[in-house]
Amino acid sequence: KSFDLRWEKSTGKGKIYSYVTFTREVNPLYVVPFEVVLVEMDDEKPVRMVANMLDTKPEELYIGMPVELDFFDVSPKQPIPIFKKRAS
User: Fold this and answer.
1) Torsion over CA: 62, 64, 67, 71 (sign)
2) What is the reported pTM?
3) Measured torsion, CA atoms of residues 19, 75, 26, 81, in degrees rounded to the nearest 10
4) Residue 58 φ then ψ, to 5°
């Protein structure tokens, strides 16, 4: 196992492998509830990626849910990955 991180080309599509919903504030920048998902990428198996979910209610999440990667641009050099629902 390695902790060396690098960018790789990807379709950005995957399915939720696991998730957690935070209901207590852990950081004032995150409004509760918020979800963090572990996504298995469709075209890079067995690659999995952890990120927050965008515009999704906790009760809408399920294992196997199709999602796609997006980015929240904090700065041009430091985009933050985030997942959102996809049609399928």
Assistant:
1) positive
2) 0.83
3) 0
4) -55, -40
